[in-house]
Amino acid sequence: MYLYSSIVRSTSRLIRDHVMMSIMASVPVKFVIGPKGKTEAVQLGLGEYRRLIRRLQDLEDAVTLDKAEETSKGLIPYSTIRKRLKRAGKL
Question: Is 89 a residue whose pLDDT tops 80?
């Protein structure tokens, strides 16, 4: 639940809905129907569940990267960071 709630806070409703629909469209599910004939739950196979979690984690990473790029004051090239770490004896 943490991943989903994090994504909800981080993306616009339209983008979130589109991404979630495309993810769910590719996942075969079984619906659990309650005694009153209403859908009460969804059952996923373990493989589908793991793929869904991986895709949600990838989406969360992409959202985090987008947010970092939008709020950054200046990005430092990897080569510069590597040189600094070597000089500091951390690499």
Answer: yes
